[in-house]
Design a protein that fits this description.
The chain is of the alpha/beta class and 354 residues long. The protein has helices at residues 14-25, 41-51, 65-74, 89-94, 96-116, 150-168, 202-210, 238-252, 271-282, 306-312, 320-333, and strands at residues 5-9, 29-34, 56-59, 77-82, 121-127, 173-179, 181-183, 217-220, 232-233, 235-237, 258-263, 269-270, 288-291, 300-301. The strands form 4 sheets. The protein has a 7-stranded parallel β-sheet, sandwiched between helices. A 3-stranded mixed β-sheet has the order 12-9-14. Strands 7-10 form a two-stranded parallel sheet. The longest helix is centred in the N-terminal third of the chain and has 21 residues, at 96-116. The radius of gyration is 19 Å and the shape is globular. The structure holds uridine-diphosphate-N-acetylglucosamine. Residues 7-325 form the NAD(P)-binding domain.
Length: 354
């Protein structure tokens, strides 16, 4: 059988690039499709350094249907892993239309282009944010859904859209992967999260405090109903998360229809526990201050990953220390992230009909 390629939208981003590495290491052919809006072509060069294989790359937008059709026409693609999208929760409350247009309209256009190209397997990058404030911890996939931000609602609406499509057309298969909190970096130390501007998320912010780029970490609230008053999250090593996508792709070969899975470890950590775990990796105590709660944060998001363990044969294997050590290895070797390296793609990789 001729090996078919996987199209990875957003494949130059944080989770996308780590997933591309796992796909290439598993011998899959990969086509990256990314508009480089919030990522750098340098990530693609580093994927090649790590794997010794050059993924096919297009700089193009998921809103550009003609570009999508052209790429599907050029390669024998049989499945799509869809990461592309805007992802900052706070920003989504300021510019909701941009979020709905990019994340929802963009996904509809991608699904239309897939249908016209007869590609009907999709793995979608969803989020634990779809659980809102869950009634039961750890959270099973059957927990009620209720997203609290425009960003979260884009994830939830896209889940509904894909599920409706699979119900209407039985030849579609979809894996909706609800990520908990990705952390860590590639063990090579040359690839990791590369936030532009001030990081919104805990671990990249803490990493920038450690290299002296930020003065201290603000801990958003210590009056939550948790063991130390700070919020609990389920931090999962990005390499484990990446491997979950391979397991989901395999699952789609069984024609399961639309299935959703939590990708988490099942173990929650508080903000203070994360600070201390990262202190250990860095070898000194990092400065932090307790400040007011951040709007929209919920006390506890911890996965029940049993379904993914059973049905995908996948389990998070790396520890919190692995995540902290790899993050520190990446951040200390690359204090400016990928800044300073040519960020744009080669001209021949650009397709733009918008
Ligand atoms: C959020 C989104 C999630 C999204 C993820 C990545 C929600 C509920 N979650 O996760 O959907 O996929 O971002 O963009 O919308 N914290 C601090 N100080 C900081 C930063 C964070 O104390 O400077 C705390 C937060 O209050 C929270 C924890 O650290 O308790 C984790 O925050 P963060 O890394 O931003 O992730 P989430 O908010 O869980």
């Amino acid at each position: 059988m001729v090996q078919k390629a996987v199209l990875v939208t957003g494949g130059a981003g944080y989770i996308g690039s780590h997933t591309v590495i796992e796909l290439l290491n598993a011998g899959r052919e990969v086509v990256i499709y990314d508009n480089l809006d919030n990522s750098s072509y340098e990530a693609v060069r580093r994927i090649e350094k790590i794997t010794g294989k050059a993924p096919i790359f297009y700089k193009a937008d998921i809103l550009d249907k003609k570009a999508l059709l052209e790429v599907f026409g050029r390669h024998a693609i049989d499945s799509v892993i869809h990461f592309a999208g805007l992802k900052a929760v706070g920003e989504s409350t300021q510019i909701p239309l941009d979020y709905y247009y990019n994340n929802i309209t963009g996904t509809i256009i991608l699904l239309q282009a897939m249908k016209e190209s007869n590609v009907k397997n999709i793995v979608f990058s969803s989020s634990a944010t779809v659980y809102g404030e869950p009634p039961v911890i750890p959270i099973p996939e059957t927990s009620p859904t209720d997203a609290k931000s425009p960003y979260g609602r884009t994830k939830l609406f896209v889940e509904h859209i894909i599920r409706d499509l699979c119900t209407a057309e039985k030849d579609w298969n979809a894996g909706l992967l609800r990520y908990f909190n990705p952390a860590g970096a590639h063990p090579s130390g040359i690839l990791g999260e590369n936030p532009t501007g001030i990081p919104n998320n805990l671990m990249p912010f803490l990493a920038q405090v450690a290299v002296g780029k930020r003065e201290f970490l603000s801990v958003f609230g210590d009056d939550y109903p948790t063991r130390d008053g700070t919020c609990i999250r389920d931090y999962i090593h990005v390499v484990d998360l990446a491997k979950g996508h391979l397991a989901a792709l395999k699952k789609l070969e069984e024609n399961p229809g639309c299935v959703e899975y939590n990708l988490g470890t099942g173990v929650g950590s508080t903000v203070l526990e994360m600070i201390h775990a990262f202190d250990k990796a860095v070898g000194r105590e990092l400065p932090y201050k307790i400040v007011a709660r951040r709007a929209g944060d919920v006390p506890n998001l911890t996965a029940d990953p049993t379904l993914a363990n059973k049905e995908l044969g996948w389990k998070a294997e790396l520890s919190l220390d692995d995540a902290c050590n790899s993050l520190w290895n990446w951040q200390s070797n690359n204090p400016q992230g990928l800044e300073g390296f040519p960020a744009d793609a080669p001209k021949e990789a650009v397709i733009n009909y918008l």
